[in-house]
Design brief:
Blueprint (H helix, E strand, L loop, with lengths): L1 H22 L13 E8 L9 E3 L2 H12 L2 E3 L9 E7 L4 E7 L8 E5 L5 E5 L1 H11 L4 E3 L7 E3 L3 E7 L1 H4 L3 E15 L8 E14 L4 E7 L6 E3 L7 E2 L8 E9 L2 E9 L5 E3 L8 E3 L10 E3 L2 E8 L4 E9 L4 E3 L6
Length: 334
């Protein structure tokens, strides 16, 4: 009799524990176990206009999302909302769950999570949990530096350019440009190239597979100043030395007449290298594409063009690959 009583007591305790685990989050989508999630992606929506498309694979970030979801509570009635992000959870077995997420940037305010096939089930995220997500998302791992200008210090990495290489390589690969350390700031008061957002500091290029595994990385060093990008952008590819490997440019603002570009290549073994240009650290090109541009291809090389104020005309240069370096073949009238 006593043994049977103990068994019943243990069963009751077990059932109570399961209720706390499975039902304690007080939501309708069940308990979110961070250990089962491989990645969480956030895609900017047309309404949100955050300019951020982020992928979180580290366990710390995934755990922050899971904790916020598990503490969320259902909202009754019909929803009328504008989503900042489309959020997708991807589990280890490939199963995915889609949500809408809205946080805003104001601290101390609750967040909104919307789940379900028709996105009709809403949940409120407690302000404390929403603040942790704000710190993570708006800067992706940044901490407020206390600078009154709004500048924050980046603990990185932050992806500024993410490029699908499948069409170029036939493999499910991505080439990312990542800010490793530096600052993020916003200034909308200027009427110039410096207005708006700015990611500035130390960058690297990284090749990743479709599971997020890093296959190679290449630090972008040798620039006279820290690299700065004022928007997220796509790399422009071509084959300028005729070896079949995709080449691409990375640029920085030079003047109102153009930008300064350097040439890089992605090799078949996933390594990245700079393609040198004889006698020039950078190529000055007049183009509306500030951060990456596709060059005009010629047999065995390419040509560039820029406007020269001193001459009052456009200047054209042609370059050909010698096997180790691009040599300039004309003086462009200079």
């Amino acid at each position: 009799m006593e043994v049977e009583l103990i068994r019943r007591l243990l069963l009751i305790l077990f059932m109570a524990a399961m209720v706390l685990i499975l039902g304690g989050c007080q939501n309708g989508f069940g308990y979110i176990n961070a250990r089962w999630i491989d990645e969480i992606s956030l895609d900017d929506t047309p309404v949100g206009r955050t300019g951020l498309n982020l992928l979180f694979t580290d366990k710390t970030s995934v755990s922050l999302f899971a904790a916020a979801m598990n503490k969320s509570k259902p909202i009754g009635g019909e929803l009328d909302y504008d989503a900042e992000f489309s959020m997708r959870l991807t589990y280890g077995d490939g199963y995915t769950q889609d949500y809408d997420l809205s946080l805003g940037k104001a601290k101390g305010q609750p967040g909104l999570l919307v789940a379900g096939k028709h996105f009709s089930n809403g949940y409120t995220i407690p302000a404390a949990r929403a603040d942790k997500l704000r710190d993570l998302i708006y800067g992706s791992g940044v901490e407020n530096s206390g600078d009154p200008t709004g500048e924050v210090t980046v603990a990185g990495p932050v992806t500024v350019s993410r490029n699908d290489l499948h069409a170029l390589t036939g493999s499910p690969l991505f080439l990312n440009l990542e800010l490793v350390s530096g600052t993020y700031s916003e200034d909308w008061s200027q009427v110039s190239i410096l207005a708006g957002r700015s990611w500035s500091g130390n960058y690297r290029l990284a090749v990743l597979d479709d599971q997020g595994k890093r296959l190679s990385s290449y630090p972008l060093t040798g620039y006279p100043e820290p690299l700065r990008f004022g928007e997220m952008f796509a790399l422009q590819f071509g084959d300028y030395n005729g070896d079949g490997d995709p080449d691409f440019t990375i640029g920085q603002y030079g003047s109102s007449n153009g930008s300064l570009f350097r040439l890089y290549t992605l090799r078949k073994d996933h390594s990245i290298a700079q393609l040198p240009v004889a006698g020039a650290a950078d190529l000055f090109i007049s183009t509306p594409d500030t951060y990456s541009t596709r060059l005009d291809t010629l047999p065995g090389g390419f040509k560039t063009e820029y406007y020269d104020n001193s001459l009052g005309q456009d200047v054209e240069h042609t370059y050909k690959w010698t096997g180790t370096v691009f040599e300039r073949m004309n003086n462009g009238g200079n």
